Every structure is written in structure tokens, then in C-alpha cells.
Amino acid sequence: MRLTDVSIERNFLYNVGTAERRLQRLQDQASSGKLFQRPQDDPIGVQRSIHLKHQLAETVQYLRNLDRARTWMDHVETGLAQVTSALQRVSELALFAVTGTTPEDAREAVIMEIEEIRQEIDSIERLRIEDKQVLSGPMPTWRVGDQVTVSTDNHAGLFQDIRTSLDEIVNLLKTDPHGDPIKQTIQDISDLDDRVLAERAKNGARIHRIEALESKLQGLDIDFQRMISDVEDVDLTEILVRLKSAEASYQAALGAGARLIQPTLLDYLR
């Protein structure tokens, strides 16, 4: 075989091998829907994909933390709203009981109901999520961003003041239902109601902040998923066109090579 024939054969094998590898890669991309299967396919793309997926994972975790915080704040609002209703009922009962025309048996019924309300408020304070008290005790902090946290207040002091005032009003209804001290205690109950409303307003502001952060993070979640798709996913229409072209090139290379290196009678004689 002449040197020219060897060179032609080598070029043919190289060109066919290149076309075959290109065809195989396009077939892999078309079947998987991904631009790369191995790091060596696109080192820069793989590195960018890893970075974006890390950011996406952080965003998803922040959204989970926000969901936990929102659940906690919703329970705080529910509990404090029940306390508001209870204190307003106590004020109504106390004002009724201190009038000079209230019969003794009605006053006794008021005392009994206020004692039941006190027990109800104790039960509200013990409201728990994930085995933690929502309104008193150690309060959790949720990380919802880079150096961004959400937390809530401990209301143990508020509940202690409520218990003290309720015990006092029950005692005064039993011992001095028409004196000045009970009037002051009724005012104290009203002041406690205002404190509860103030705490509910603060909690509402936290919920509003959580909603704003949640909206922002949901937008980031969508953006990161889109960017990951841009880095990893193929354009199916484009890849099918390129695959068709690669198949045609591969078949053309095979056909051209077959014609170029056809054996002659002289080749057999040699």
C-alpha cells in the first residue's frame, strides 16, 4: 500500500471517528434532555450548575424556615385573639357584678365564670408546636436569608400579669365587690387587653414581613430554576436539527471514505 493510501485511510478513520463522537454526544443530549452527562463535557457549565443548585437549595431551606415561622406566628395570633376575647368577657362580667343591684347568686355565677376563664387562659398559654410553647418559654429564631432572621417575643410576663389581675378580681368580688380597689382592677384588666392588642399588632407586622420575604424568595426560587435549566437543558428543536445534520455528515463521511479506499486489482496482486 502506498504512503498516499495510508494517509487517506488515516484521515478517513479520524474524520469518521470525529463525526461518530459528535453524533453520539448529540444522541445523548437528545435522549437525556441535558447538555452534559460528565464534567469533562462542559467543565464551566458543570461548575455554574453546581453553584446555582447550591443557591437554590439555600433558597428552598429559607422558604421552609419561613413556612415554620409563619405557622408559629399564626398560632400566636390565634392564642392572643382568644385572650382578647377572654379579657373582654371578664370586663363585662366584672362591671355587671359590681353594680349595686346584682344579686348574690348572680355574683357567685360571675366568679365561677371568671375562674373558668382563668383556666382557659392558662390552657392558651400552654399552646404548643413541635413540643415547644408558642406564647411563653424559649422562643425560636428562624434563619430566612444571608444574615436575615425572624423571631418572636416571649409573652410569659403578660400571662403572669393576667393571672395576677384575674386572681385579684375574683378575690375582690368575694370580699369587697363595691369598693374602689375592684374598680382599679377592672381598669387593670382593660389595660391588659390593650397590651394584648399591642402584641397582636407587633405579631401582625412580623407576619407581613414574612409574607414579603416569602414573595421575594419564591421569585428567587423560580429564577434559580430557570438559570439551572438554561445551563443544563437542551433546546429540543435545536438539538434535533443538529442531530439530523450530524447523522447526514456521518453517513456522508462513511460513503466518501468507502469510495476513496476501494481496493484495486493491483492491491490484491501485491
Distance N to C terminus = 8 Å
Overall pLDDT level: 85
Instruction: Name the CATH architecture of the largest domain.
Output: Up-down Bundle
Helix/strand order, N-terminal first: HHHEEEEHHHH
- Low-confidence stretches at least 5 residues in length (pLDDT < 50)? none
SSE blueprint and pairings:
Layout: H1 3-32, H2 43-97, H3 104-125, E1 128-129, E2 132-133, E3 141-145, E4 148-151, H4 156-175, H5 180-232, H6 236-260, H7 265-269
Antiparallel strand pairs: 1-2, 3-4
Helix pairs in contact: 1-6, 2-3, 2-5, 3-4, 4-5
Describe it for me?
This protein is mainly α. The chain has helices at 3-32, 43-97, 104-125, 156-175, 180-232, 236-260, 265-269, and strands spanning 128-129, 132-133, 141-145, 148-151. Helix 1 (3-32) runs antiparallel to helix 6 (236-260), helix 2 (43-97) runs antiparallel to helix 5 and helix 4 packs antiparallel against helix 5. The longest helix has 55 residues, at 43-97. The chain is rod-shaped, with a radius of gyration of 39 Å. It starts with a helix and ends with a helix.
What are the key terms here?
mainly alpha
Concise summary:
By secondary structure, this protein is mainly alpha-helical.
